[in-house]
Design a protein that fits this description.
The structure is a single chain. The chain is flat. It starts with a strand and ends with a strand. It is α+β, with helices and mostly antiparallel strands. A hairpin with a 6-residue loop joins strand 7 and strand 8. It contains four helices and twelve strands; from the N terminus they run E-E-E-E-H-H-H-E-E-H-E-E-E-E-E-E. The strands form three sheets. Strands 7, 8, 10, 11 and 12 form a five-stranded antiparallel beta sheet that branches. A four-stranded antiparallel beta sheet has the order 1-2-3-4, with no helix packed on it. Helix 1 packs across helix 2.
Length: 245
């Protein structure tokens, strides 16, 4: 239905025509035709798998959001969804249209970079946490290292936290039901950090444990004390390991 808007300009639709305002002028266009292309059955099933991968990828992002603060690059979600699709169809005997990540090969998500502007290995070199699941608890061990040599320090950064973020995902709905942050605080003038060990609380059986590794840099402000320097182009964060509890 068309009507007169401000300045007596037509808006809305009339028959097969659509009226809209653009740069102070009234533009008349034909209504777009409805999509009459009929999807084949394989195409419909592929769309179902695509939707499932999108939902799972969204919940994986939610599981790390408290740490990541959504500081990913513009294509971060699309890249994660593509990786989830690949992992869901690999080693998965389920037919097209019923492929879930957890029945495929979730380990293919390992190495995913949350922000391609700041790949994790550009800022952290030679630090490889060792992981094990003992009595339904995740144990994380970090060998001794030199902050001066192992970390790249952005201009103005004098303190950092090497972080290990655990998110435990439940297969039935992909939700993260348990999260924990383990971190090692260092300063730019330290020569050595001793070995560190962390143990999580008990993890529910048959869930999937995601361990993300990242680093947060800080600068000192005389008014606001220590402030995080991480931003949309500085958020080193990598999915290190995926384990089944």
């Amino acid at each position: 239905m068309a009507y007169l808007g401000k300045n007596n300009r037509l808006k809305g639709s009339l028959g097969n025509l659509v009226f809209r305002e653009l740069n102070g002028k009234t533009i008349v266009q034909r209504k777009p035709k409805k999509n009459t292309v009929k999807q084949t059955r394989p195409t419909q099933l592929a769309a179902v798998d695509f939707g499932s991968a999108s939902t799972t990828a969204k919940k994986i992002r939610i599981g790390v959001k408290t740490y990541s603060r959504d500081l990913g690059d513009a294509q971060s979600f699309c890249r994660l969804r593509t990786r989830v699709q690949l992992a869901a169809r690999t080693d998965n005997s389920a037919p097209s249209g019923a492929r879930k990540l957890w029945e495929g090969n979730p380990a293919l998500l390992e190495g995913f970079e949350y922000n391609l502007y700041s790949p994790y290995e550009r800022y952290v070199q030679g630090i490889a946490p060792e992981l094990s699941l003992v009595n339904q608890q995740l144990q994380v061990s970090v060998e001794a290292f030199s902050p001066k040599q192992a970390l790249t320090w952005p201009k103005g950064a004098s303190k950092a936290k090497l972080c290990f973020w655990m998110a435990v995902h439940r297969p039935k709905d992909d939700l993260s039901i348990q999260e924990a942050l383990f971190s090692v605080e260092v300063t730019s003038d330290q020569d050595a950090i001793t070995e560190s060990h962390f143990t999580s609380e008990t993890i529910s059986e048959n869930c999937w444990v995601f361990l993300w590794t990242g680093i947060v840099y800080y600068s000192y402000n005389a008014v606001f004390d220590w402030e995080s320097m991480n931003h949309k182009k500085l958020q080193p964060l990598r999915l290190w390991k995926v384990l089944q509890a």
